[in-house]
Write a structure and sequence with these properties.
Elements lengths: L10 H9 L5 E5 L5 H4 L4 E5 L4 H11 L10 E4 L11 H12 L7 E4 L1 H8 L4 E5 L8 E4 L6
Parallel strand pairs: 1-5, 2-5, 3-4
Antiparallel strand pairs: 1-6, 3-6
Helix pairs in contact: 3-4
């Protein structure tokens, strides 16, 4: 156990977050996301008993978002024709604005299949038990300036 580090951040996840460099990406995936097949070249961390919001909040406490790109926080767009509501995105926005001075301006959307292609290039994918649909988040790491 460490002081000041959210308990949900496992030793494996902390190691991965520390290993990541500027511009590396991590995906926090919902329970429907094909984490294992998308993560063939990534580190896949299983956190099935947790939802995306609690993991996102913990990660953003220690993970700087990239200030050199316009949208370092990306969500998977809802496919046209899918009758899906995404209230979890409001939750993400509330979490993100606690840690990112740009607020929701740093949040972007990536078309579903383009999101999958970008996820294949991620450094790591966290597989969660999140049941909300279109609840996937991709974060691009920035630099620590303190």
């Amino acid at each position: 156990m460490l002081k000041g580090v959210p308990k949900i951040l496992s030793p494996q996840l902390l190691k991965v977050l520390c290993e990541m460099g500027h511009s590396d990406r991590i995906v926090i995936a919902d329970g429907n996301f094909p984490a294992e097949s998308m993560g063939k070249d990534a580190i896949v961390i299983r956190m099935d008993g947790h939802g995306v919001p609690e993991i996102l909040d913990a990660v953003l406490q220690v993970f700087p978002l990239d200030s050199y790109v316009e949208k370092p926080f990306s969500l998977m767009e809802v496919m046209p024709g899918d009758d899906v509501e995404t209230p979890i995105w409001d939750t993400y926005e509330e979490i993100e604005k606690k840690y990112e001075s740009r607020g929701k301006e740093a949040i972007g959307h990536i078309e579903r299949f383009a999101f999958y292609e970008e996820a294949k290039k991620a450094y790591a994918i966290i597989a969660t038990g999140e049941t909300a649909l279109y609840a996937n988040v991709m974060l691009q790491k920035g630099v620590v300036t303190d």
